[in-house]
Amino acid sequence: MGLQKDTESIQRAxxxxxxxVIVGSYSSWLTKxxxxxxxxxxxxxxxEGKKVVVFLDYDGTLSKIVKDPDKAxxxxxxxxxxxxxxxxxxxxxxxxxxxxxxxxFVQLDEVYYAGSHGMDISTPSGxxxxxxxxxxxxTINEKGEEVVDFCPAKEFLPTIQEIVIMLxxxxxxxKGAIVxxxxxxxxxxxxxxxxxxxxxxxxxxxxxxxGYPNFKISEGKKVMEIRPNIEWDKGRALLYLLDTLGxxxxxxxxxxxxxxDKTDEDAFKVIQSRGEDQGLAIVVxxxxxxxxxxxxxxxxxxxxxxxxxxxxxxxxLQPSI
Length: 321
Prior knowledge:
Layout: H1 2-12, H2 26-32, H3 40-44, E1 51-56, H4 76-88, E2 91-94, H5 99-106, E3 112-115, E4 120-123, E5 136-140, E6 146-150, H6 157-171, E7 178-181, E8 186-189, H7 195-209, E9 215-220, E10 223-228, H8 234-244, E11 253-259, H9 265-273, E12 280-284, E13 295-297, H10 300-317
Parallel strand pairs: 1-2, 1-11, 2-3, 11-12, 12-13
Antiparallel strand pairs: 3-4, 4-6, 5-6, 7-8, 8-10, 9-10
């Protein structure tokens, strides 16, 4: 009898693009995860006397989710908002996209970039605390500057390229399926796949990946993410970046992380693990769902508004000359 009730409740449940259950109404959800815009002044009391560091996801946070992943461009107004934030606070974009692709979208030199869910990071200096020497390489960037590239999954690169070729071949007969190479991970997009074919696509990918036990599959917004099964994620990338920026052992830093996807939950958990009032985790969602974040924004336009408020807050703190 209990099993029948569980089945009936699942059938009645509504799901978002990540396959997560939509929990109640948005208005009631806001009582648990209040708007970061409506509660901005209260939130920023935590930043008094601290150095703010800003971390941003890309898709669904700085840009809208679109059918063609190659067309997920950010608006010029959003770019200006991010640039202004980066001029006032250390700012990093942590994305599941390849780092080169994120840089192509954002087009800002003032920002630090972490691609492949944090498995491809480039910073002016490395980290002895969170990054091993074998995964950190000193290189010269396109501007002739010395940087440290951190790639904890680089030994998986040949296998990833093999998987990309096989997946593209196996999925080419499913209309709308897109296999995106994100260098140290890959994405199988099914936003444009007909509902009747989604199950077959997922089964196809899962069956093929049975032959690659060192990889794991997770699901995002109409996408399957395939990554090396290593102890690294966006949360660890956040810690790595804090350390390389000189805040690894600092008690007077307030990291702010804004993201919309399941993979951002790892970063939210790290923020929460720092202790009460030691960071701000903000989820971007237009549907009520379970999250490790403490605050919410509804969509990218609200993210832009929040970033502008953040800059104004900093400017108001600075004495006029």
